[in-house]
Write a structure and sequence with these properties.
4 domains, ten-stranded mixed beta sheet, seven-stranded antiparallel beta sheet, 14 helices, 25 strands, globular
Length: 487
Amino acid sequence: MAKIIKIEGNTVFIGTDDWKLLEINKNDCVFEPVFGAEVEVYSNETKTIVIKKESPKLLVPAENNNIIEIKKDVIDRPILYYGISENMKKNFSKYVEITGEPKLIIEQDDNLKDFPEKRLFDKYDIVSLDEALECHPDAVIWVTYLYANNTAKRLLKRIEPERIKFLKADLEYRKGCSFLGHFIDYRVDNFSPCCVSGNSQVKTSGTIAERMAHWERHIRQLIDDIKNGRPTKCDNCRYLKEGFWPKKVWLDYICFATNHPGDVCNLRCSYCFVEKRFKDLNSGDKEGYTTYETIQQLSQMPEYNRPDVCIELSNGEFCANKDCDEIFDVLFKTKWKVRFVTNMTIYKEKFAEFLKTGRTTNVLTSLDAGTPETYKAIKKVDCFNKVIENMKRYPLQDVDFKLKYIFLDGVNDNETDVDGFYNIVKDVGCKTIFISSDRCKPFTEKIRELVVRLIKKAKQDGIRIAKSSYIASQDDIFIDNIINDVE
């Protein structure tokens, strides 16, 4: 015996008495399937049939269906919904047909004030997650959001993944990371599916369209290999974690780092690891598409010129690129959001105009100092005051402007620079402090004390703290602990 536990489009999900989940086409049911109906599933060599009554003798029990293991007592647990929206209200009756009647509705703590009556349709109590789990600690929670990544992470801290279901979001529980499946680090003759692993490069060639198709084939295979436990270059990566990740490959982040002919920078930072690359790219004999040529072609491809795609320009100092104005001309015509990494040494009117479009996700500048002397020692150029002047001149007030501090042992690991840096953060209206180290070098005890000092100051003033991927794993944990401990 089995029971229908979900109906989604033409797919009927049936829980069996040996605790498996079958995915059956609706057309294979000889009756109109409804939630909760007790059924039996049979198949011969060519047909699967779902019936309510005793099976025909010529059929044998179904095998070879799409079967997913589920925990033993999930099917009959209380049902809760997470998230209220106009779309959720509109489709509520359809959702109930799929899942069964919910006991109550969970809403995010910050939004509970929007429901003073604490009731939906004068029938369902609206409560916080804590209250819901206190009332129904063994419940199955159905998330109603279309974009549910953050909600899934929040729920995973409290309940088992088998008890988290999605009515709209296209997520599955597997190993993954925040890059895999939606990110490409685009380079002159290769690409990478992430920006933190040095061994993930994939050689490629051909037209821009052919290279993007190559990326998609590679990613689909990589995700499948990880899901099925086959060896990959992602093995042992600290960013690869169990969680809910998108089922589909859907590129929404294209990163242009320092890997294209014409990429330049007007600083020579002491920690920079791409100075030789600049020389190679501009030696005159390096073939390949420039950033401008690539962006121009991508902008003419509807599958990538979408408002949910973010382009990152972090290839040296893009305002020093000879094609800078032409790049901005393309950006103005696209639907893209854009993230800029810039040293702020150059003021460009087109950059200022783009910042007013509302399509800038954030701007990141590595200042790394709080005094002109230390800045010059790190950057090899004496333009500290010019940088601060440009920060104030650009219209950054409505942009998520981030200032990075890369801690360098024996160079900027002192209170004078850290305090000076923080004063600039406040002076220019920076919203986020980005903490980093020199290519994952572990923090010294002195640097750790300064990190604590910086975090405490930021917490008091409501300034966010973020971490670079170039931080040693032990320091990554250390920063998280400090952020959580500081009131």
